[in-house]
Description:
The chain is α+β, with helices and mostly antiparallel strands. It has three helices and seven strands, in the order E-H-H-E-E-E-E-E-E-H. It has a seven-stranded antiparallel beta sheet.
Amino acid sequence: MPTHAEIRTLPHTPEQMFDLVADIESYPEFLPWCLEAKIWKREGNVVYADLVIGYKMFRERFTSKVTLTKPGHIHVEYLKGPLKYLSNHWRFLPSNPDACVIDFFVDFEFKNPVFQKVMGVFFNEAVKRMVTAFEQHGRALYGDR
């Protein structure tokens, strides 16, 4: 099953990057292949959200439970959709007063073996593009120091 881990240092505070990643409903504005994003329930620092991901004829809805532990950690638990499982987290670690280290991890498997095979071919490139989209959105929001 595809797994991707990435660590990057960005010129933004952990709080800024946490806020950016926690703003789930803005994902369609900048995240490749994200067509819709909606938070449908909030319970303290936990949100329940639906994402619709699509590319050409492929379109799937995912429901997740997202635990927001500000400013250092976002954990995503898969609830419903086309996957067998999903393990995903973001960690935001202070690097210096105006920077942070982003620790990103994702691992998942589609229920449909055809989707899984197709995704396996493009997985690393797709995830790198998604992480880069968050980085570029951070620059657009907070500038580049």
